[in-house]
Amino acid sequence: MTLQSISPTTTIPSIMSCGHPLDSAPENLGELRSSAHLVDDARALRERMEEDGYLYLPGYLDRDLVLEARHDIFTRLAAEGYLQPDTPIMEAYAAPERKSGLRADIARASEPLQRLLYSGRMRDFYTHFLGGEVLHYDYTWLRAVRPGHGTPPHGDSVYMNRGTQNLYTGWVPLGDVSYELGGLMMLEGSHKLDRIRNHYGKKDVDAYCSNRPDAPEYASGRKWWSGWLSNNPRYLRQRLGGRWLTGEFRAGDLLTFTMFTVHGSLDNTTPDRIRLSCDFRYQLASEQVDERWVGENPIGHTSAGKRGRVC
Questions:
Q1: What is the pLDDT of residues 103-124, one digit of tens each?
Q2: Dihedral, CA atoms, 42, 293, 111, 174, nearest 10 degrees?
Q3: How many angstroms separate the CA atoms of 233 and 243, rounded?
Q4: Cα(19)–Cα(149) distance, rounded to whole angstroms?
Q5: CATH code of the domain made up of 32-309
Q6: Whole-angstrom Cα distance, residue 92 to residue 65?
Q7: Which residues does the chain have with pLDDT short of 70?
Q8: What DSSP string describes 250-308?
Q9: What is the pLDDT of residue 101?
């Protein structure tokens, strides 16, 4: 598995997340560490994952296939009026009246995206890394993000912890992502924190107290907990420690991380361009799977996925 090399960025400009400027002091903000040189060594990859809580593999995927998926998805979004008329589809200029959103329906319909995420080099990587037959969730989180605030910090466990804890998120930029477009950021060392692993990470956004007066509202989905740790990434870093780690990404990069790695995204500060990315999950096929995210029509966070308990 040969990897495309990428020059490291030496300076991170002033960047924001959730409307808050991140502290750019070197002890508070840094770059993701590449694990590209370890890609053929499964043991080294697992040790690096245990150490860092993430693996960043720049250039691991076929860039042409990533761009094929990008073209297919934006062609579909353009037909729905998400792009400015008479602008290049691949440049993704956002129509002003449309909002950001998850498009699992388009992800499911896009043959090149399905091929990118669930076969070939991607499936080979997770089989190699996990050391056995793998299973992926059938739900794909395809995100078309307009200019505005990024996703607040969170860990993925609270959204999908009814199966194995040895579940890994993969994140792929479907196009080159500058600091201005706003890529993902990881909180250094957060996957080792007891308050994340054994307190916050044990919660379930779809669980509710059946013996409380507002139980019917939670059961129906009229009320919910977002799962976010904070709307202020700068303040959260001060509380939990570590640095925010991020970078500029290229089509072909793969970032994968644990269920307990705290992460969020930078703000899209461009005037009018859409950041396109997707995230997905892999685990060993032999381990328990969260029933919310598999099947022909995964129930996800709908009322069918709610679970009451006596508190």
A1: 999 999 999 999 999 999 999 9
A2: -60
A3: 11
A4: 6
A5: 2.60.120.620
A6: 18
A7: 1-11
A8: -TT-EEEE-TT--EEE--B-SSSB-EEEEEEEEEETTS---GGG-SSS--TTSGGG-EE
A9: 83
Q: In the numeric block, which tokens belong to residue 133?
A: 């037959």
Q: Report the pLDDT value the prediction gives residue 97, as an integer from 0 to 100.
A: 84
Structure tokens at 295: 């099947």
| pLDDT at residue 98 in the model | 84
pLDDT at 13: 75
Within 8 A by CB and 6+ apart from 239, the residues are 230
- Taking the C-alpha atoms of residue 136 and residue 163, their distance in angstroms, rounded to an integer, is 12
Torsion of CA 32, 290, 113, 71, to 10 degrees: -70
Q: Per-domain residue ranges for the chain?
A: 32-309
Q: Which residues contact 51 (CB under 8 A, 6 or more apart)?
A: none
Distance, in Å, from the CA atom of 218 to the CA atom of 293, rounded to the nearest integer, reads: 20
Quote the CA–CA distance of 228 and 225 in Å, as a whole number: 8
pLDDT at 11: 65
Q: What is the pLDDT of residue 6?
A: 34
Sign of CA dihedral 19, 20, 26, 27: negative
